[in-house]
Amino acid sequence: MTPSPHQSTGTAITADDLPLDNSFAALPPDFHTRLMPTPLPAPYFVAASAKAAALVGLDARALAADDFVAVFTGNAVPARAQPLAAVYSGHQFGVWAGQLGDGRAILLGALPGPGGAPIELQLKGAGLTPYSRMGDGRAVLRSSIREYLCSEAIAALGIPTTRALVITGSDKGVMRETVETSAVVTRMAPSFVRFGSFEHWFYRDKPEQLRILADYVIANFYPELKDAPNPYKELLAEVTRRTARMIAQWQAVGFMHGVMNTDNMSILGLTLDYGPFGFMEAFDANHICNHTDQQGRYSYANQPQVGHWNCYALGQALLPLIGAVEDAQDALDVYQDAFARKTDELLHAKLGLSTIEENDTILFDAMFKIMHDNHVDFTLFFRGLARLRVDAPESDLPALDAPLRDQFIAREAFDAWAATYRARLRREHSVDAERAPAMDRVNPKYVLRNYLAQVAIDKAQHKDFSEIDKLLAVLERPFDEQPENAAYAALPPDWASHLEVSCSS
Ligand SMILES: Nc1ncnc2c1ncn2[C@@H]1O[C@H](COP(=O)(O)OP(=O)(O)OP(=O)(O)O)[C@@H](O)[C@H]1O
Ligand SMILES: [Mg+2]
Description:
Blueprint: E1 32-34, E2 44-48, H1 50-55, H2 66-73, E3 84-86, E4 89-92, E5 95-99, E6 105-112, E7 118-124, E8 139-140, H3 141-156, E9 163-175, E10 179-189, H4 195-203, H5 207-221, H6 231-253, E11 255-256, E12 278-279, H7 303-322, H8 325-332, H9 334-350, H10 360-374, H11 378-385, H12 397-405, H13 411-427, H14 432-440, H15 450-461, H16 466-475
Antiparallel strand pairs: 1-3, 2-9, 4-5, 6-7, 7-10, 8-10, 9-10, 11-12
Bound molecules: adenosine-5'-triphosphate and magnesium ion.
Residues 100-105, 131-132, 135-138, 259, 263-264, 273, 275, 505 line the site of adenosine-5'-triphosphate.
């Protein structure tokens, strides 16, 4: 094995020396199973995120060396790692699913992150665990590339998320709809504890374990709540608030998670588990991104209320600790207001409005209605909105409006809405040259469209990983114009119309 320097500054150390520390491993044994990852034959480096690596003081270029590839495939375990799989349960598609757990994810431990706060490293696809049920403990290259790219894209959009550090691959075949090759994606987060981690102990009627877990989460991730009169109520309120805000941010960029089961809801309010996700293209408020979700439980329009439902599931689980139902209810009531406020803030920014008027909601609703009726591309519409002019001569406006207006089939519906919007901007004396750049900082030009991921995946299946790096570089600067990369902002090509994503991963 070739030892490699891993830090951009300081002394070179090997993967074996990674200063890992695993606070979750110190919880009682019924919270996890300590076990080794299962090696994969002849692993190879696929891609690494420089930005994610920098968070834990690693140099992404060093991660391609043999010793790091071995560690991040699970073929070698650093001396200070305490690998484990965590147990959790959860509601899947609204139904209690009983015990689940890390069926293919193995936590190695945490590295010091910004300010010294620990950031855990978890290998997804690293082999069987006692919680694998019918699964094979593996992840395929296809889904690992999607998870890697989208984690980093969502982070660049400023939305709370788990991160992706590195992907390694192996030609060992795994069966999905067809035989695919395996991969391991190393994810990073302060914690991977889920709503379902709490539900697990509630449904097993183990209030002591419930308390141990809640105290662990508060001590490590919400220390400011420790001395509150009812810290468990405050924990529920804070998680509810973070969840509501995160989902408001998803809605504002047209992100659809696809599997908002309670075992995929992070106790830190992070976007967790990138499976059959999608970014809205032709706008349909009821769009369902996950082919497996036939009822549309997790459609775009349903995400906000499902987020609230999931917080109720967490509230139910925490009730033995909180005490009074009224207190839990108070904490859950935070949701509506937090979601509405965040949405309002984001929509004002997306439309370049710096004041608030009573009828703004009517303007926003009318906008979503014409977007829906005309199936306009979500990202292109909002990006184009910054080019709608206010202070140009009236006679020039039709020509200036044309690129945006042409996105609509019913041009007169656009004209009517644009007139209201323009009048609204004029009432606050909006200046084009100031408003447009501010709007460009919140309306991304580049999002991870399914077809873009598919192009990178198709090349990767032939061992050409260059498009993963190229695409990541574009998605890391989603708000920048990047004229040289304009092709990455284009509408999906015809071949992409048959693309379907499902729970198969
Ligand atoms: N191939 C597999 N082998 C073993 N277990 C699996 C496999 N795929 C999914 N599971 C398990 O099934 C449950 C639900 O799967 P889900 O797709 O939500 O999670 P995941 O994508 O594996 O992981 P995570 O939520 O950690 O991102 C989890 O307990 C997960 O570990
Ligand atoms: Mg999951």
